Known about the structure:
Blueprint: H1 14-17, E1 23-28, H2 30-35, H3 40-46, E2 47-52, H4 56-59, H5 63-72, E3 77-79, H6 84-97, H7 105-122, H8 143-184, H9 188-201, H10 210-235, H11 243-254, E4 263-268, H12 272-281, E5 284-286, E6 295-303, E7 309-310, E8 326-334, E9 339-342, H13 391-404, H14 416-419
Parallel strand pairs: 1-2, 1-4, 2-3, 4-5
Antiparallel strand pairs: 6-7, 6-8, 8-9
Helix pairs in contact: 6-7
Amino acid sequence: MSTETAPAPAVASPAATQERKPIHTLVLDTGPLIKNDPPVSTLLAQADELFMLPSIIDEIRDVNTRTRVQTTLMPFVKLRNPRPESIKFVTNFARRTGDLEVLSRPDLHLLALTYELDVEKNGGDSRLRKDPNQRIPNTPRSATSDVSEGKPTQEVSSVEGETTAEVNENVDNTEATASEETTEAPPANADATDITQEMENLEIEEDKPAEEQSAVEENITETVVAKENISDDEDGWITPSNVKKHKEKDSKRLQPTEPAVDVKVGILTSDYAMQNVALRIGLNLLSPAMSRITQLKTWVLRCHGCFQVCKKMDKQFCPSCGQATLTRTSCTTEEDGSFKIHLKRNFQWNNRGNVFSIPKPVAGTSSGKLAKHAGGKNNWGTNLIFAEDQREYEKAVGENRRARRRDLMDEDYLPSILTGDRTSNNGKVRLGPGRNVNGRKKR
């Protein structure tokens, strides 16, 4: 007696059910690697290929971080340097946007590598921009796409023409019937006589008893409630009639869906200047959460005198006019490459203390100590700084730089939070005589 075994159900292979990664090529910067945000597991799960510059490892100075990157990430990363043409394009573009002065050489090479890979993967730079003021990509859409989009419009127009013709025919028919009705309508006097005769023949029916009315109302309410229960059973509850529908719905939920983000080439960086240049070129910019960044908010310095924009946030004098009129202003970079500066409404520049008398210069002494009233009371007029090329300003900047390099573990060093020193002005040099120059001086 032979027994036939049923064939085993077909099992889908892991390769068939595996989802396609949302990012094809990802270029990495040093910042996310140092912070380990996102981790290496996320990078490998979201991107097919990882690219870096060979010089990025040298930028990581921490021994533990460099060891972690070399052991966990470097086996999966491809090292590549950009071509000189790509570097030249990115350098010229960054010069036009004003970010060249704050971008280092590795930053420019990283942007050039992203630009080069984007051109290779997309078959050209049709989706990118060559100028910061350009609002649309380099190459318009092909004529084939226009033709393919033009055909449905013609069909729609023909359908609309047919529908309008049908509507016109219906309107003509209704007008004809209305004219026939008007011609066959009886006179108004005949209508009045018919109405009076009907009123005379009208019979008044007696009211039904209250019991019959209540019974009818109960029947109506019962039928309404029954219909509501049936609809509830069909919608919310699983019944033998709709169990198949619910199974199909649950099976659709379990099926893998396509990723929401599909990026061919993207760059992951935490540098604001690089993000600004990447967005204005049209490159795909990614966040640590592996989502596309379409709007970037940053801060710039804007001169209130000559309206020049400066990207170096440590500047105190305008590089164009040389005045100390730089104000911190917020700006946004959109996905279409537009750059907007958000100004304060009805902003008034404070001219208080602009006119004052400068004390006469005082010669120094061998000990470095000055007389009590030299340069005004309490020596307020000595070492006044009005320009960036002054010797006093260069000396003060050097002293602040050396003070920041001071070892925090020094026994003689106390932080300002313990000493109460609040005159540092966030590490910047004090310019001019101060706010209340014309006020009364302390004796």
